[in-house]
Amino acid sequence: MDRQKALEILHQYLHTENLVKHSFAVEAVMKTLAERLEPDKVEEWSIAGLLHDLDADLVDYRNHPELHGPKTIEILRGLNFGTEDMYHAILAHNQATGTKIESKFDQALYAADPITGFITAVALVYPDKKLSSVKVKSIIKRMNELRFAAGADRNAMRSIELLGIPFEEFAELSLKAMTEIADVLGL
């Protein structure tokens, strides 16, 4: 498994610009989480973040959410790319698949996926629309405003605490990871 091959796969199957940016954001957060929780798994966790939504342009996940994840695994298996742990985390990040969260890897991806979109939404309400303007306290404040980014799964984001990381710290490390690739994200 290497990132260059993962990038080729990403660009072969995922074409919606915002989904590609989201994939890079989740990759960055997963890398940071792996460095903290499983330092020997940084590449695997990062690539899972990069490819977790690989099938988003291929399946009607709005009407059939259970299809989001299994198609990604089918593609990755067909390419002989990835690991069983990675496949499980990708399936578990979408609870509609019925796949239970069983590991740190699963839990990390489940929490990382929605926080990247949430932080992006916070950045977009600033006049300059830049991640560098976002403060952790703004993320925390917006978490309590249920109408703000109403589709963001706050329970999934807060579930990071099951791994011993307080939510405020998770918000900070996620924001930092995303800010480091702000140019890629266009934020």
From TrEMBL:
* Pfam families registered for this protein in UniProt: HD
Which segments of the protein form a coiled coil according to its record?
none
Q: Which InterPro entries match?
A: HD/PDEase_dom, HD_domain
Signal peptide start-end: none
Query: Where is the HD/PDEase domain positioned along the sequence?
Result: 15-167
Under which name does UniProt file this protein? HD/PDEase domain-containing protein
Species this chain originates from: Fervidicola ferrireducens
